[in-house]
Every structure is written in C-alpha cells, then in structure tokens.
Design brief:
The chain is 88% helix and 0% strand. By secondary structure, the chain is an all-alpha fold.
C-alpha cells in the first residue's frame, strides 16, 4: 500500500510538472507572438514620435500592470473585477501609445496650418523650399519642429527632397501632411506657384477644422448620453451595494453572479462602441 501511495504521489507530481511545463511553454509562445506583433509595432511608433523605448520595456510594463491591477481588483473588490482589471492593465500601455500618437498627430495638424502660411510667405520673400522648411523648423515647437528638423537633416545628408518628404509623411501618419507631400512633389516636378498652393492647402485644412469643430459640438450630446448610459449600471450597483449589501453579497458569492456581471460588462462595452460609431463622423 505504501508503494502504491508513493507511486501515485510521484505520478501526480509528474503530471502536474508536465502540465505546468506545457502551460509555461504556451504562455511563453503567446508572449513572443504578442511582442512581435504588437509591442514591436508600438515601439516603432514611439521611435517615430521621438520617444525611444525598447519593446522589452513595454512588455515588462504590460505584465507588471497585469498583475498589479489584477491583485488590487481581487483584494479590494472580487475575482471578476480583478480579472477585468488585469486584462485592462495588460493592454493599457498599447492603448496609451495609440492615444499619444493620436494627440501628437492632432497637434501636428494644427501647427501645419500656420507652417503652410509661413512657407507661403517665405516663397514670396524669395526663399527656396529647403530654406523655408529650415526656417520653420527653427522657429516652431515640437512635434512640427522635430519632423521638419529631421527632414532638413536628411536633405543635408544627400537624401532627395522627394524621398525625404515621403519619409516624413510615413513617420507622422497625418492625412493633411500626405496631401502637402503629394502636392509639393507634383509642383516641384511639373512647376507651379508653390506660394499660392500652400495658401490654398492651408485654407482647406482650416475649413476642415471648422467643420470638425461644428460636428463635434453637434454630436457631443450623443457622446455624453453614451457615457452616462454606460456608467449607470456601475453606479446603481455601487449604490445598491452601499444601501443593501445583504442583497448584493449573495450574487457575488455564486458563479451565476459572476457570469451576470461579465455579461453586463461586455454589453456595456459593445453599447459604447456602437454609440461611438454612430456619432463619429469623419470629414
């Protein structure tokens, strides 16, 4: 009997060991693919925004936020909230990179309007295209000064102006800058009044900003309604938990309550996504 017990313990331990080994291998493979597909792309986007962060640092940050938010949610609330916070924490750095890039492009577009007017004035004063860009790069602020300054350095190192403009458009990821790049390259190859062209493009972008502001003002009520409707179940749940904890505790002590909370969370996220798609109008 003792031999059978020892054999059963050894077999159980071996099965657990191999199971942990397989799970660890799957997790390591998933982390490797995650780093190759998403983290490396985010690190490349950060380098394009002059923020030089290694992909491994983003991976470590994602894992740390995963465990930190998961543990806080588990001890302060319940396992379901802990799991949700852990998933949010894992993807939070990538979401931050996307938001930072979006804000940077928006600021660049605003600066680009004034830069186009300044370039038009520089052409009227007799400056060449590289001289006008160099003048704007020295007098402006980031991010426009960074991108124009890198364009000037590339042109001084022997990169053709057309290629340097295309490289700048790929780095920034702005539709307005892509329009300027295409128009500038065509004008330089075929000839034309570049001062008038920059004035026209600047006026077009400025008018688009005006339309976007008007649309945002009209759709702001719908966006606020979506946020209020999405937050209402959470607020009501917290109020009921404060007023009648005896009614809320049984739901959090059963698997059906966890499934119900997860279903409500998923439906709220889907509702916010649908409302955001309805009120988002691209100009």
């Amino acid at each position: 009997m003792k031999m059978l017990s020892v054999l059963a313990i050894l077999m159980t331990g071996g099965a657990v060991f191999f199971f942990v080994l397989i799970v660890f291998g799957i997790f390591a493979k998933a982390m490797e693919q995650y780093q190759e597909r998403y983290v490396t792309t985010s690190a490349s986007e950060l380098s394009d925004m002059f923020l030089f962060i290694d992909g491994r640092q983003l991976t470590v940050l994602s894992v740390c936020l995963f465990f930190l938010l998961g543990i806080l949610g588990y001890f302060l609330m319940n396992p379901v909230i802990g799991g949700m916070l852990a998933i949010i924490g894992f993807f939070l750095p990538l979401f931050g990179v996307k938001m930072f890039k979006k804000q940077r492009v928006r600021k660049f577009n605003v600066q680009l309007v004034d830069a186009l007017q300044a370039m038009s004035n520089a052409f009227k004063a007799g400056l060449t295209f590289p001289q006008a860009v160099d003048h704007i790069a020295r007098d402006s602020t980031p991010p426009l000064s960074q991108e124009f300054g890198l364009f000037v350095k590339e042109s001084k190192l022997g990169v053709p102006l057309d290629e340097a403009l295309i490289n700048m458009g790929k780095r920034v990821g702005s539709e307005d800058l892509d329009l300027v790049v295409v128009a500038t390259n065509i004008s330089r190859q075929l000839g034309g009044n570049m001062a008038e062209m920059f004035e026209t493009i600047g006026a077009t972008i400025r008018e688009r900003f005006r339309l976007e502001g008007k649309i945002d003002a009209i759709t702001s009520q719908g966006k606020m309604q979506g946020i209020v409707v999405a937050c209402m179940p959470l607020v009501l749940g917290l109020v009921l938990n404060y007023m009648r904890p005896d009614l809320m505790e049984p739901m959090m002590d059963h698997w059906f309550g966890y499934c119900l909370v997860a279903a409500v969370f998923v439906m709220e996220v889907m509702g916010m996504f649908i409302i955001n798609k309805i009120v988002s109008i691209d100009v």
